[in-house]
Structure formats: structure tokens, C-alpha cells
Design brief:
about 75% helix, Growth Hormone, Chain: A, 2 domains, mainly alpha, single chain
């Protein structure tokens, strides 16, 4: 049976994801309206990932020093203020710094929530809680995209809405019992150790960071470049995370019964093919077909990260899993820092189609690397009762392992 306090925690996560889902697309949209250019927009959006990297070092120390609730409250207040500053000055460097603050704070808030969820769940209900967490996370992230349609002639209203949602996410959390969960240590693991255990895990996490961050950071700009009205763009960006609710579990179930590398390879190839079909259609495909293809791309590509992490866990000792997960998050953060900058520059040079070409290259590179690893290490390890992660750092920029390192 799930404790009432955990339902309150999920409510807090829902409000956080609703505001976070709107925030990223809103900044990308506002940057496009301010005529920053796709390369500059990519630079601005990459600030979030820079903040994510910093957060994985700062947030654990904050929690150890002042506790979960105070850390969450401080971060929520800071990011709520930062969001309100965007419309005051349309300057790329200023917006980049605000995105760094946003990434640091929102990632830290996720760290607190996920750590709390992990430590207060029991072995009997942890799987159920992770499933509910996935539904809440992806569902609210998707719904957040639809809030782009809120009327905003002044340019302030939607930013105020984000600020309100992020602030309100604090209210349910402070209703939890004042005694915070303890933070247990874990064996440190280096990137070199992960590489020796599973090169595909290191390469795969970097590739997911490169691809997924670019998808969410420049997806709005891509949609507008294709001539879609804002309502259609919001739907296009909302459907992929909502669709992952349906695709994540069966993909994880299949990967538990077959070589995960094969599933990673197949998903990467299918994602690249979908992007190629979208590219081949050019401006001749209808609005409905374009949105359907982008949705299919997201539904197939977004779960890859969880399979990569599960594959890493298959090759690690039990006491290495938590420490390794923290390093994988950092690797993802590096990829997500580079992705928006790189795809933004490509789109500046060759237009909106550069977004699709970038996605094709990233996913084909991952598929090729998975194929080479299967040739070099023919045998594979089946999951030994280990749960496949049900969330992706795109939605939850950091996870409990970073706190427990």
C-alpha cells in the first residue's frame, strides 16, 4: 500500500514537471520571437545543461547541510525568481545565465524529489511507485507544452505562469513529515571503470544527451520553421513525452528478455529512419503527418536512455550501481550541453532540415556503435532482477544516485 505522503510527493513532482515542461519550450519560443537565430538559441538553451552539471555537485552538499525540504524550498524560490527575469531584458548572454540558474535549481529539485521517493518506498511498492512516477512525469511534461497556447500579448503572462507552478510545487512537499529520509553512501565509480565494464553505456548516454536535449531545446524552432502555427507546435512537442507513457514499459519488458544491445540498435535505427522519412517529405507532408512522425520519433527514441543505463547495470557489481548512475548522469549532462549548441549552429547554416539531419546522424552513430560492440562481445548478460529505469534525464535532469554518491 502506498503511503499518503508519497501521493503528496507525486503531486509536488506533477506541479514541478508542469512548470518545467512549459519553461523549456517557452524560452525557445521567446528566443525565436526575439530573432536570436538558431545558433544563439541553441547556446541559450544549453545553459540548462550547464546548470544540470553544476547541480549534481552542489545539491548533494546542500541536502547534507540543510536537509531535503530546505534545499527544495531554496531552489524553488530561486528558480521562480529567475524565470520572471527573462522578459525584462532580451539579451542572449543574460538568458544563458538565467538558463544555467534554471538548470541548477530544477535539477536540484528533481534530485530532492527522487531521492525522497526512492528512500521512502519499500521493496514491495518501489516498482509501482516508479511506474506512477513515470506517468506523472511524462504526463505533466507533455501537458506543460500545451500551456504555450495561453494568451500572452505582453510577453510576461506565460513566464509568470511558469513561476507560479514552480513555486506551488513547494507547497505539497512541505506538507510531508519534517523528518527527512537519510542519505546513504555508495561506492564511488569512475568513468573509466564504466567504460571497461560497458563502453556502450558511456557512448550511449552521451548520444542520448546529444539527441534528447536538442530535441526538446530546438523542437519548437523546428516546428515553426516548418510553418506550423503555435497551437500545432505545442501539440507536436506534447505528444512525444505523453506517448512514452505507453512505450516505455513494453520496451523495458522486451529488453529484459533479449540482448539490450539489440533493442538499443533497433530503436536507434528506427528513430533514424523516422527522421529520414520526415526529411524526405520536405514541405510536402501535411501538418498531421509531420506531427505524427515527430511523435513516433520521440516515442521510439526517448526510452533508449533507460535501456543504456540498464545495460550498464547488467555489467556492474551491485555496490557500484549507484555511483555509476551518478557518473552516467554527468555524461548525459555533457552531451546535453553540446547538443543544443551544435544543432542550433547546423540549423543556422542549412535551415530547419538541419534538425532532422542531426537526429539521423546521432542515432545512426549510436546504432553503429551498438553493432560494433555486439561483434566485439558476442555474449550478453540478461537482467538479473534489475529494474529498467522508467524515466529519462530529459524529464528528470538528475536522479537519486547523484545524491547518494
Amino acid at each position: 500500500m502506498i503511503k499518503p505522503s508519497l501521493w503528496i510527493l507525486l503531486l509536488s513532482v506533477g506541479l514541478l514537471c508542469l512548470g518545467h515542461g512549459l519553461s523549456g519550450s517557452l524560452v525557445s519560443l521567446a528566443a525565436n520571437q526575439a530573432e536570436f537565430g538558431t545558433d544563439v538559441t541553441g547556446f541559450v538553451m544549453a545553459g540548462y545543461s550547464a546548470g544540470l552539471l553544476v547541480s549534481t555537485f552542489i545539491t548533494p552538499r546542500l541536502v547534507r547541510n540543510v536537509g531535503h525540504v530546505r534545499t527544495f524550498a531554496g531552489l524553488a524560490s530561486t528558480v521562480s525568481t529567475a524565470v520572471l527575469l527573462f522578459p525584462l531584458w532580451h539579451e542572449p548572454v543574460f538568458w544563458f545565465l538565467l538558463r544555467v540558474v534554471t538548470g541548477l535549481c530544477v535539477s536540484g529539485m528533481f534530485i530532492v524529489c527522487e531521492s525522497w521517493l526512492n528512500t521512502t518506498s519499500s521493496n514491495r511498492n518501489r516498482g509501482q511507485m516508479l511506474s506512477l512516477y513515470m506517468i506523472v512525469t511524462y504526463g505533466m511534461l507533455g501537458l506543460g507544452q500545451l500551456l504555450l497556447n495561453v494568451s500572452d500579448e505582453s510577453g510576461f503572462v506565460r513566464f509568470i505562469l511558469v513561476s507560479c507552478l514552480l513555486s506551488l510545487s513547494l507547497v505539497p512537499l512541505i506538507l510531508l513529515p519534517s523528518e527527512a529520509p537519510s542519505v546513504e553512501g555508495a561506492q564511488p565509480v569512475s568513468v573509466e571503470q564504466i567504460w571497461r565494464a560497458s563502453p556502450l553505456a558511456v557512448f550511449g548516454v552521451l548520444a542520448c544527451g546529444l539527441g534528447q536535449s536538442a530535441f526538446f531545446a530546438l523542437g519548437v524552432v523546428f516546428g515553426l520553421a516548418k510553418g506550423l502555427p503555435l497551437v500545432s507546435v505545442s501539440i507536436m512537442m506534447a505528444l512525444p513525452p505523453l506517448g512514452v507513457i505507453l512505450s516505455q514499459y513494453p520496451i523495458g519488458w522486451i529488453s529484459d528478455r533479449f540482448d539490450r544491445r539489440t533493442i538499443i540498435l533497433l530503436l536507434s535505427v528506427v528513430a533514424a529512419v523516422i527522421a529520414a522519412l520526415t526529411l524526405a517529405g520536405g514541405n510536402y507532408i501535411s501538418r498531421f503527418v509531420l506531427i505524427s512522425l515527430v511523435t513516433a520519433f520521440g516515442v521510439i527514441s526517448l526510452p533508449i536512455y533507460s535501456l543504456v543505463v540498464a545495460h550498464a547495470n547488467d555489467h556492474l557489481e551491485k555496490d557500484q550501481v549507484l555511483g555509476a548512475s551518478a557518473k552516467l548522469i554527468l555524461l548525459y549532462g555533457v552531451g546535453s550541453l553540446v547538443g543544443p549548441i551544435l544543432v542550433g549552429d547546423i540549423m543556422r547554416r542549412i535551415g530547419g532540415d538541419g534538425f532532422l539531419i542531426y537526429m539521423i546522424v546521432v542515432h545512426l552513430a549510436l546504432a553503429l556503435f551498438a553493432f560494433l560492440r555486439m561483434r566485439q562481445r558476442p555474449e550478453h548478460l540478461k537482467a538479473q532482477g534489475k529494474e529498467v529505469m522508467t524515466v529519462s534525464p530529459v524529464s528528470t535532469p538528475a536522479g537519486p544516485p547523484a545524491l547518494q554518491e
